[in-house]
Protein backbone atom coordinates (compact mmCIF):
# COMPACT_ATOMS: atom_id res chain seq x y z
CA UNK A 1 0.00 0.00 0.00
CA UNK A 2 1.25 3.44 -0.87
CA UNK A 3 2.09 5.14 2.46
CA UNK A 4 1.28 8.48 0.95
CA UNK A 5 -2.37 7.57 1.13
CA UNK A 6 -2.32 6.14 4.64
CA UNK A 7 0.22 8.24 6.65
CA UNK A 8 -0.92 11.68 7.76
CA UNK A 9 0.84 14.21 9.98
CA UNK A 10 -0.98 16.46 12.48
CA UNK A 11 -2.89 19.26 10.79
CA UNK A 12 -1.24 22.67 10.88
CA UNK A 13 -2.96 25.98 11.61
CA UNK A 14 -1.91 29.45 10.61
CA UNK A 15 0.70 30.87 12.94
CA UNK A 16 -0.19 33.65 15.34
CA UNK A 17 0.76 36.78 13.39
CA UNK A 18 1.76 34.52 10.47
CA UNK A 19 0.77 32.04 7.74
CA UNK A 20 1.26 28.39 6.73
CA UNK A 21 1.16 27.07 3.19
CA UNK A 22 0.98 23.31 2.42
CA UNK A 23 -0.03 23.29 -1.26
CA UNK A 24 -3.28 23.57 -3.16
CA UNK A 25 -4.38 19.89 -2.87
CA UNK A 26 -6.44 19.78 0.28
CA UNK A 27 -6.33 15.94 0.47
CA UNK A 28 -2.52 15.88 0.34
CA UNK A 29 -1.72 18.85 2.60
CA UNK A 30 -0.60 16.83 5.64
CA UNK A 31 0.25 13.47 3.98
CA UNK A 32 3.57 11.67 3.85
CA UNK A 33 6.40 13.57 2.08
CA UNK A 34 4.34 16.72 1.72
CA UNK A 35 5.95 19.98 2.94
CA UNK A 36 4.54 23.11 4.50
CA UNK A 37 6.18 26.55 4.58
CA UNK A 38 5.72 29.39 7.04
CA UNK A 39 5.84 33.20 6.93
CA UNK A 40 5.00 36.05 9.29
CA UNK A 41 2.99 39.25 9.12
CA UNK A 42 4.72 42.55 8.55
CA UNK A 43 6.49 43.68 11.70
CA UNK A 44 7.19 40.10 12.81
CA UNK A 45 10.00 37.65 12.10
CA UNK A 46 10.01 33.87 12.00
CA UNK A 47 11.69 31.97 14.82
CA UNK A 48 12.45 28.37 13.82
CA UNK A 49 12.42 26.41 10.55
CA UNK A 50 10.71 28.04 7.58
CA UNK A 51 9.65 24.63 6.13
CA UNK A 52 8.63 21.24 7.59
CA UNK A 53 8.03 17.83 5.89
CA UNK A 54 5.75 14.97 6.89
CA UNK A 55 7.71 11.78 7.62
CA UNK A 56 6.69 8.12 7.24
CA UNK A 57 6.17 7.98 10.96
CA UNK A 58 3.40 10.57 10.78
CA UNK A 59 5.36 13.40 12.36
CA UNK A 60 6.82 16.63 11.06
CA UNK A 61 10.59 16.56 10.67
CA UNK A 62 11.04 19.98 12.41
CA UNK A 63 9.40 21.77 15.28
CA UNK A 64 6.68 24.15 14.22
CA UNK A 65 8.07 27.74 14.23
CA UNK A 66 6.42 30.84 15.62
CA UNK A 67 6.38 34.58 14.86
CA UNK A 68 7.87 37.20 17.14
CA UNK A 69 7.49 40.95 16.88
CA UNK A 70 10.42 42.85 15.40
CA UNK A 71 11.58 45.25 18.12
CA UNK A 72 14.35 47.82 18.30
CA UNK A 73 16.40 47.84 21.47
CA UNK A 74 15.78 50.50 24.07
CA UNK A 75 18.36 53.22 23.24
CA UNK A 76 21.08 53.39 25.88
CA UNK A 77 21.21 56.80 27.52
CA UNK A 78 21.95 58.59 30.78
CA UNK A 79 21.44 62.06 32.19
CA UNK A 80 21.44 64.75 30.93
CA UNK A 81 19.97 63.18 27.74
CA UNK A 82 16.12 63.25 27.73
CA UNK A 83 14.17 60.77 25.53
CA UNK A 84 10.53 60.58 24.47
CA UNK A 85 9.31 57.66 22.29
CA UNK A 86 6.11 57.09 20.33
CA UNK A 87 5.71 53.66 21.96
CA UNK A 88 6.64 52.01 25.22
CA UNK A 89 10.37 51.25 25.41
CA UNK A 90 9.45 47.53 25.52
CA UNK A 91 7.30 47.82 22.36
CA UNK A 92 9.53 49.76 19.97
CA UNK A 93 8.33 48.19 16.72
CA UNK A 94 9.31 49.22 13.17
CA UNK A 95 8.34 52.82 12.37
CA UNK A 96 8.40 53.71 16.06
CA UNK A 97 10.33 56.89 16.76
CA UNK A 98 12.26 58.36 19.70
CA UNK A 99 13.03 62.07 20.10
CA UNK A 100 15.83 63.51 22.21
CA UNK A 101 16.66 66.73 24.03
CA UNK A 102 19.11 67.82 26.73
CA UNK A 103 18.78 69.25 30.20
CA UNK A 104 19.31 72.97 30.60
CA UNK A 105 22.90 73.97 30.06
CA UNK A 106 23.68 71.18 27.57
CA UNK A 107 23.78 71.04 23.79
CA UNK A 108 22.49 68.12 21.70
CA UNK A 109 25.10 66.51 19.47
CA UNK A 110 23.56 64.27 16.78
CA UNK A 111 20.06 63.52 15.45
CA UNK A 112 17.14 64.77 17.54
CA UNK A 113 14.89 61.92 16.23
CA UNK A 114 15.67 58.28 15.35
CA UNK A 115 13.37 55.68 13.71
CA UNK A 116 13.09 51.91 14.11
CA UNK A 117 13.68 50.17 10.76
CA UNK A 118 11.97 47.03 9.43
CA UNK A 119 14.99 44.93 10.41
CA UNK A 120 14.83 46.02 14.06
CA UNK A 121 17.72 48.48 13.88
CA UNK A 122 17.69 52.22 14.52
CA UNK A 123 18.29 54.30 11.42
CA UNK A 124 20.66 56.66 13.28
CA UNK A 125 22.92 56.58 16.32
CA UNK A 126 21.70 57.77 19.68
CA UNK A 127 22.78 61.41 20.19
CA UNK A 128 24.75 62.78 23.15
CA UNK A 129 24.69 65.94 25.25
CA UNK A 130 27.75 68.13 25.61
CA UNK A 131 28.52 70.88 28.11
CA UNK A 132 27.94 74.34 26.77
CA UNK A 133 31.36 75.95 26.19
CA UNK A 134 32.69 78.25 28.92
CA UNK A 135 34.35 81.25 27.34
CA UNK A 136 37.18 81.46 26.57
CA UNK A 137 36.96 77.65 26.56
CA UNK A 138 39.07 74.95 28.15
CA UNK A 139 42.36 75.88 26.56
CA UNK A 140 45.72 75.18 28.24
CA UNK A 141 46.59 77.91 30.76
CA UNK A 142 49.48 80.20 29.90
CA UNK A 143 52.72 78.44 30.87
CA UNK A 144 50.78 75.21 31.44
CA UNK A 145 49.15 72.14 29.91
CA UNK A 146 45.71 70.45 29.82
CA UNK A 147 44.76 66.77 29.51
CA UNK A 148 41.10 65.72 29.01
CA UNK A 149 39.41 62.31 29.16
CA UNK A 150 37.36 63.10 26.05
CA UNK A 151 37.87 65.13 22.89
CA UNK A 152 34.39 66.60 23.47
CA UNK A 153 33.07 68.29 26.59
CA UNK A 154 30.49 65.60 27.31
CA UNK A 155 28.79 64.97 30.62
CA UNK A 156 31.14 63.59 33.28
CA UNK A 157 34.27 64.19 31.16
CA UNK A 158 37.27 65.50 33.08
CA UNK A 159 40.22 67.76 32.37
CA UNK A 160 43.40 68.00 34.46
CA UNK A 161 45.92 70.85 34.47
CA UNK A 162 49.67 71.10 35.05
CA UNK A 163 52.18 73.95 34.86
CA UNK A 164 55.61 74.33 33.32
CA UNK A 165 58.69 74.13 35.51
CA UNK A 166 59.05 77.27 37.59
CA UNK A 167 55.29 77.88 37.74
CA UNK A 168 52.69 76.80 40.30
CA UNK A 169 49.00 76.00 39.70
CA UNK A 170 46.52 78.50 41.14
CA UNK A 171 43.09 76.85 41.30
CA UNK A 172 41.71 73.29 41.01
CA UNK A 173 43.85 70.65 39.36
CA UNK A 174 40.81 68.75 37.98
CA UNK A 175 37.57 70.01 36.37
CA UNK A 176 34.50 67.85 35.64
CA UNK A 177 31.60 68.50 33.27
CA UNK A 178 28.54 68.34 35.54
CA UNK A 179 24.78 67.82 35.27
CA UNK A 180 24.05 71.52 34.82
CA UNK A 181 26.15 71.90 31.69
CA UNK A 182 29.14 73.71 33.09
CA UNK A 183 32.49 72.89 34.59
CA UNK A 184 32.77 72.39 38.34
CA UNK A 185 35.07 75.41 38.80
CA UNK A 186 36.89 78.20 37.00
CA UNK A 187 39.87 77.23 34.88
CA UNK A 188 43.11 77.46 36.93
CA UNK A 189 46.12 79.60 36.03
CA UNK A 190 49.88 79.11 36.23
CA UNK A 191 51.70 81.69 38.36
CA UNK A 192 55.45 82.22 38.45
CA UNK A 193 57.11 81.19 41.70
CA UNK A 194 58.64 84.08 43.66
CA UNK A 195 62.40 83.87 43.50
CA UNK A 196 64.54 84.66 46.55
CA UNK A 197 67.72 85.05 44.50
CA UNK A 198 68.42 86.32 40.99
CA UNK A 199 70.47 84.49 38.35
CA UNK A 200 73.74 85.80 39.86
CA UNK A 201 72.91 84.38 43.26
CA UNK A 202 72.50 87.79 44.90
CA UNK A 203 69.70 88.69 47.26
CA UNK A 204 66.72 90.46 45.69
CA UNK A 205 64.02 92.59 47.24
CA UNK A 206 60.25 92.63 46.93
CA UNK A 207 58.59 96.05 46.42
CA UNK A 208 57.46 96.01 50.04
CA UNK A 209 60.96 95.32 51.30
CA UNK A 210 62.43 98.10 49.16
CA UNK A 211 59.94 100.78 50.14
CA UNK A 212 59.95 99.85 53.83
CA UNK A 213 63.73 100.27 53.80
CA UNK A 214 63.36 103.61 52.03
CA UNK A 215 60.88 104.65 54.70
CA UNK A 216 63.30 103.51 57.40
CA UNK A 217 66.11 105.56 55.87
CA UNK A 218 63.75 108.53 55.87
CA UNK A 219 63.01 108.02 59.57
CA UNK A 220 66.73 107.79 60.43
CA UNK A 221 67.39 110.96 58.51
CA UNK A 222 64.63 112.97 60.20
CA UNK A 223 65.51 111.92 63.73
CA UNK A 224 69.18 112.78 63.37
CA UNK A 225 68.54 116.27 64.83
CA UNK A 226 66.33 115.07 67.69
CA UNK A 227 67.62 114.55 71.23
CA UNK A 228 69.70 111.45 71.66
CA UNK A 229 67.11 109.39 73.63
CA UNK A 230 64.37 110.19 71.13
CA UNK A 231 66.60 109.48 68.15
CA UNK A 232 67.72 106.18 69.58
CA UNK A 233 64.22 104.93 70.42
CA UNK A 234 62.71 106.16 67.16
CA UNK A 235 65.51 104.56 65.20
CA UNK A 236 64.87 101.34 67.06
CA UNK A 237 61.18 101.45 66.13
CA UNK A 238 62.05 102.06 62.46
CA UNK A 239 64.62 99.30 62.46
CA UNK A 240 62.10 96.94 64.07
CA UNK A 241 59.57 97.74 61.37
CA UNK A 242 62.20 97.05 58.73
CA UNK A 243 63.10 93.71 60.29
CA UNK A 244 59.41 92.76 60.59
CA UNK A 245 58.28 93.67 57.08
CA UNK A 246 61.38 93.20 54.96
CA UNK A 247 63.43 90.57 56.73
CA UNK A 248 66.62 91.66 54.93
CA UNK A 249 69.73 93.63 55.87
CA UNK A 250 69.98 97.37 55.08
CA UNK A 251 73.39 97.35 53.45
CA UNK A 252 71.89 96.75 49.97
CA UNK A 253 71.40 99.23 47.16
CA UNK A 254 67.66 99.92 47.29
CA UNK A 255 67.56 101.88 44.06
CA UNK A 256 69.46 99.13 42.25
CA UNK A 257 66.97 96.52 43.41
CA UNK A 258 64.07 98.69 42.27
CA UNK A 259 65.42 98.73 38.74
CA UNK A 260 65.88 94.96 38.72
CA UNK A 261 62.41 94.06 40.08
CA UNK A 262 59.61 92.93 37.73
CA UNK A 263 56.05 92.02 38.62
CA UNK A 264 54.77 88.66 37.37
CA UNK A 265 51.16 89.86 36.99
CA UNK A 266 48.88 92.82 37.54
CA UNK A 267 47.26 90.98 40.43
CA UNK A 268 50.58 90.53 42.24
CA UNK A 269 51.38 94.19 41.65
CA UNK A 270 48.04 95.34 43.01
CA UNK A 271 48.23 93.10 46.09
CA UNK A 272 51.79 94.23 46.79
CA UNK A 273 50.66 97.83 46.53
CA UNK A 274 47.86 97.26 49.04
CA UNK A 275 50.24 95.54 51.45
CA UNK A 276 52.75 98.33 50.95
CA UNK A 277 50.24 101.07 51.79
CA UNK A 278 49.07 99.24 54.92
CA UNK A 279 52.61 98.58 56.18
CA UNK A 280 53.85 102.11 55.41
CA UNK A 281 50.89 103.70 57.19
CA UNK A 282 51.36 101.46 60.21
CA UNK A 283 55.08 102.13 60.39
CA UNK A 284 54.63 105.85 59.89
CA UNK A 285 51.93 106.16 62.55
CA UNK A 286 53.91 104.07 65.03
CA UNK A 287 57.13 105.98 64.47
CA UNK A 288 55.45 109.42 64.56
CA UNK A 289 53.50 108.73 67.76
CA UNK A 290 56.54 107.25 69.44
CA UNK A 291 58.74 110.17 68.42
CA UNK A 292 56.25 112.76 69.67
CA UNK A 293 55.58 111.03 72.97
CA UNK A 294 59.22 110.47 73.73
CA UNK A 295 60.17 113.98 72.63
CA UNK A 296 57.60 115.49 74.96
CA UNK A 297 58.76 113.23 77.75
CA UNK A 298 62.34 114.30 77.18
CA UNK A 299 61.46 118.01 77.16
CA UNK A 300 59.46 117.61 80.35
CA UNK A 301 62.38 115.78 81.93
CA UNK A 302 64.80 118.56 80.87
CA UNK A 303 62.51 121.26 82.26
CA UNK A 304 62.30 119.56 85.62
CA UNK A 305 66.05 119.33 85.81
From TrEMBL:
Residues 7-69, 70-131, 135-192 form the Sushi domain. Keywords: Disulfide bond, Glycoprotein, Membrane, Repeat, Sushi, Transmembrane, Transmembrane helix. Gene3D superfamilies: Complement Module, domain 1. Pfam families: Sushi. CDD domains: CCP. The chain crosses the membrane at residues 230-250, 270-295. The keyword Transmembrane applies. PROSITE patterns: SUSHI. Disulfide bonds join 40-67, 102-129, 163-190. InterPro entries: Compl-Cell_Adhes-Reg, Sushi/SCR/CCP_sf, Sushi_SCR_CCP_dom. PANTHER family: COMPLEMENT COMPONENT 4 BINDING PROTEIN, SECRETORY-RELATED (PTHR19325:SF569), COMPLEMENT COMPONENT-RELATED SUSHI DOMAIN-CONTAINING (PTHR19325). This is Sushi domain-containing protein. It comes from Neolamprologus brichardi (Fairy cichlid).
Amino acid sequence: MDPSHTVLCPALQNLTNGFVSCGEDADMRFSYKNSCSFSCDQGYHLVGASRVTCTSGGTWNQQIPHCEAILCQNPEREAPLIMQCSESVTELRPNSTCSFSCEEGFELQGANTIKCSEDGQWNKNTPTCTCEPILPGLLPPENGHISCSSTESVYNSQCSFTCDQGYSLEGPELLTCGHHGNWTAEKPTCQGKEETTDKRGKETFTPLQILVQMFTLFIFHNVSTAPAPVAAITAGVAAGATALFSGVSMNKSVMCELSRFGFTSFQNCFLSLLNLVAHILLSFITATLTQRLLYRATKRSDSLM
